[in-house]
Amino acid sequence: MVQATPFLLVLILALGAHGLPAKKCTLTGRWINDLGSTMTISTLNANGDFSGSYLTAVTATANKIQESPLQGSLQHPNQKGQPTFGFTVNWKFSDSITVFTGQCFVDNDGKEVLKTMWLLRSRVEDIKNDWKATR
């Protein structure tokens, strides 16, 4: 019976964890990525639409980097948990635009983390150069 007690305690704790409230990830605020780029999401309306700004730390152009506006949408803004989202950055300092899609997570330590993928489209002179316009 002594060996069964720790197992039962762990099982009861595991079953009881389902009753805990889900951790909620909040998209608004200031975010910094691994490369030092900064994104600020300042407004989020009831429909899940948001706006803000993005200051990249990296660029492929020789132009001076400038803070650029972003517009996006959060999937199911009133749901609890870890929502998906997408946004577009219209770069002020180059002839390109980037779209991001991702999800907001709360890790086991309670830290909010954004996991995203991006696609950048640069302007090219003609359709023959289309192959090199998207990264």
UniProtKB/TrEMBL annotation:
<dbReference type="InterPro" id="IPR036896">
    <property type="entry name" value="Avidin-like_sf"/>
</dbReference>
<protein>
    <recommendedName>
        <fullName>Avidin</fullName>
    </recommendedName>
</protein>
<dbReference type="InterPro" id="IPR051764">
    <property type="entry name" value="Avidin/Streptavidin-rel"/>
</dbReference>
<keyword id="KW-0092">Biotin</keyword>
<keyword id="KW-0732">Signal</keyword>
<dbReference type="InterPro" id="IPR005469">
    <property type="entry name" value="Avidin"/>
</dbReference>
<dbReference type="Pfam" id="PF01382">
    <property type="entry name" value="Avidin"/>
</dbReference>
<dbReference type="GO" id="GO:0005576">
    <property type="term" value="C:extracellular region"/>
</dbReference>
<dbReference type="InterPro" id="IPR005468">
    <property type="entry name" value="Avidin/str"/>
</dbReference>
<feature type="signal peptide">
    <location>
        <begin position="1"/>
        <end position="19"/>
    </location>
</feature>
<comment type="subunit">
    <text>Homotetramer.</text>
</comment>
<keyword id="KW-0325">Glycoprotein</keyword>
<feature type="disulfide bond">
    <location>
        <begin position="25"/>
        <end position="104"/>
    </location>
</feature>
<comment type="similarity">
    <text>Belongs to the avidin/streptavidin family.</text>
</comment>
<keyword id="KW-1015">Disulfide bond</keyword>
<dbReference type="GO" id="GO:0009374">
    <property type="term" value="F:biotin binding"/>
</dbReference>
<keyword id="KW-0964">Secreted</keyword>
<comment type="function">
    <text>Forms a strong non-covalent specific complex with biotin.</text>
</comment>
